[in-house]
Amino acid sequence: MDDSKEKPEYDGPSKSQLKRDSHALQAIGKELVEMPEGKLQKFNLPEALEEAIYEARRLKSREAKRRHLQYIGKLMRISDIDDIQTTLDKMDHQSLTYRQYFAQLEQWRDRLINGGNSAIDDFVNEHSLADRQKLRNLQRQANREQELKKSAVASRKLFTYIRSLAE
């Protein structure tokens, strides 16, 4: 029997691939460290990772920061980063995820303006923090603006309000 014709076993990703993955996670970690506080609050981070990010922000030494970013990369390897990546994509105006998210918000706005009380009920059922009265007022104002052919100020306010609830 000739052993050379057998298929070699798959041992997993190569050492080079593991290193590329590690560097990619470190880059995401660096992005999180340099991110403004308001944006960072939108992430659902594991406690250890969040503490490491705040610690990295306090470090002044370049070498210490570099080592700490490696540590953040290690924490990210053992964490589920799908939520982190999705949130980053929602913030990146060039990403497909952001465009889909934005289109979904625009659909909600149009549905609320044209759909009456049933659309407001559907939105409130999906977003429990929504203020029904505020939605109704913005809906009325947007409809009035459309009838009078004025600029869509209320429509923009409605979109902004929907966006604040969806984040």
Automatic annotation (TrEMBL):
GO cellular component, one term: cytosol
GO MF, any single term: rRNA binding
Compartments, record wording: Cytoplasm
Family matches, as InterPro entries: DarP, DarP_sf
Origin: domain of life: Bacteria
Family statement drawn from the similarity comment of this UniProt entry: Belongs to the DarP family.
Name listed for the protein in its UniProt record: Dual-action ribosomal maturation protein DarP
